[in-house]
Amino acid sequence: MTEPTPPRERLAAIDVGSNSIRLVVAEYDPDTGLRIIDEVKDQPRLANGLAATGLLSTASRARAFAALKRMKEVADRRGVTKLAAVATAAMREARNGRAFARRVTHELGIPLEIINEAREAQLSWRSVAHHFRLENARTIVADIGGGSLELVGAVDGVVEVIASLPLGAVRLTEKFLPGKRDQRVEVAALRRRIRPLLRKALPWKTWAQGTLIGSGGTFTNLARMAAARRGIVGEAIHGTSVGTGEVEGLLEWLSTLSAEQRALVTGLNPQRADIILAGLAVAAELLVMLDARQLTVSAYGLREGLLLEMVGAEQPVKALDQLRLYREFVERCHGERRHVEQVRLLALSLYDQLSRTLGCTPEERGLLEAAAMLHDVGQLVSYRRHHQHSFQLIMHADRLGLGMGDRFLVALISRHHRKRGPSKKDEDFARLSKGDQAIVRRLSGLLRVADGFDRGHTAAVDRLMVTLTKDQCTIHASPRLQSADVSLEVWGAERKVDVLADALDRAVLLERGAEPEARASEAIAVPRRPRPRRRSTL
Question: What is the pLDDT of residues 208-247, one digit of tens each?
Fold first, then answer.
């Protein structure tokens, strides 16, 4: 009898920013990283009025104290044994900031530390470095807070430069976006003020066309707005890429709306509606400085960096552990591990033999592996429509390590592992680009066949061997035991070859039992669906 796994230590980190205060409670595993247990967020706006008075206002301090008190209660009830808290620009600059930190520590028992700009940037960097692979790349990490902008430049994962600028969203809004004239004019004037400050901060020619990764509320709201405009609905936006044109377009459009109208924009937190223009203006100017085509959004920020510092974690999650994240999610959904592992092996075997013919890119192998592991998680909700429920669960899962774009593809591939294949009648599929539609078609075709070859959920098939000719694809299923009957598995695959046959533009034949040469006469021919004369260019 195996010993139960001892509970992991629970840690908590609090980030007291110029705009918001955030608590995150987590457990840490060296193989898969942080597992978030709880999060609490409040927006007391500590920076309100700070630029004019140099002080934290009585009202903002009262709001912040109340928020911190609630967060301490949450941490205690969650069984947290280690708590760390840091404060950034607003409390760093306010003349009464240190007095307020002492009060928080004394009355609430929260060890609140006011950190300098370099430490703030390093914590943000630690978080990003843990969640992204930064080898062989020149990377700028930008964290736009309420009071300041922190920049970290790294080459091949090694930090080379750190800069802090007074370009926080709250600060810039109060000083330069009063809303007394056309906001488009105000935003244009703000960008002209931002540009020279940025230009002096870094040797931008050295970093030209490098990777820009953004963390903080400006970037996460940008990702959600961009995703909503693409028709993608989901909470997980980590790893989302947003093009320079999208940033400029959103900034221009939002500049034509009042704060009240912006509060109704899908994907934008209403509490950030009044300061989003300033944040996006900074993001847009960063893209200009880098001459970059896009930026990538990190859903993790300073507080996750603080957690990682607490556990001494320096390195990013290892590549192999992506699979472990999928397995953990399958377990949480009470999935049948034996079946999905078998489907994964069969799907990847088919991919390795057919990818060149199908025109797959190397990156598609990872998408197929994810979909094979996750395709049945929807059975947690119900069996009859579990393919549809799998789509929803994948789109909203919090620990899969997939960016929004890849997550959407994996969810669609999983959705189409049974019933009908991908169709433009499906709104989610129809909104994809032609290239992504082709990916979903060919990978769902492979997944459908692999899933069919384990119809009995017994892992009876040991391996699949593919033979291609100009007009047909033959898939031979070898049983795990020589005496085993895999008729059910071949029947299951036979019912699902339509999408793969369409993608290959070949008839598909399935063979069972002995080696192909010995049993060729028993091949089962599966005709393709009728195809129109005019072929798609996908």
Answer: 888 999 999 999 999 999 988 887 766 678 888 999 999 9
Q: Mean pLDDT, the chain, as a whole number?
A: 86
Q: How far apart are CA 418 and CA 429, in angstroms?
A: 15
Which residue has tokens 């940033």? Answer: 247
- Cα separation, 281 vs 304, in Å, equals 26
User: How far is it, in rounded angstroms, from Cα 204 to Cα 220?
Assistant: 24
The CATH homologous superfamily for domain 321-526 is Hypothetical protein af1432 (1.10.3210.10)
| CATH number of the structural domain 118-304 | 3.30.420.150
Packing angle of the helix pair 276-290, 244-254 (nearest 10 deg): 150
Domains 118-304 and 321-526 in one fold: no
Tokens of 121: 């940037």
Dig out the tokens for 161 from the structure: 């430069």
Residue 519 has pLDDT above 50, yes or no: no
Residues sharing a CB contact under 8 Å with residue 180, sequence separation 6 or more, in sequence order: none
Task: Please report, for residues 257, 355, 532, 533, the alpha-carbon distance to residue 536 in angstroms, rounded to integers and kept in the order given.
Answer: 40, 19, 9, 10
Neighbours of 66 (CB within 10 A): 12
The arithmetic mean of pLDDT across residues 128-132, rounded, is: 83
N-to-C CA span, the chain? 54
Note the pLDDT tens digit of each residue in 155-199: 887 788 889 999 999 999 999 998 778 899 999 999 999 999 999
- 172, 148 in Cβ contact below 8 A? no
The reported pLDDT for the residue numbered 522 is 40
pLDDT score recorded for residue 527: 43
Locate the domains of the chain by residue range: 10-115, 118-304, 321-526
The answer to whether the beta carbons of residues 295 and 212 sit under 8 Å apart is: yes
Residues 369 and 358: their CA atoms lie apart, in Å, by: 16
User: Cα-flanking dihedrals φ and ψ of residue 140, to 5°?
Assistant: -110, 125
**pLDDT tens figures, 444-503:** 999 999 999 998 888 889 999 999 999 999 999 988 887 778 889 889 889 999 999 999
The Cβ of residue 186 has, within 10 Å, a number of other Cβ atoms equal to 20
The token pair at 44 is: 């007391």
**The pLDDT value given to residue 418:** 86
The hierarchical CATH code for the domain 10-115 is 3.30.420.40
* HEC readout, 348-363: HHHHHHHHHHHCCCCH
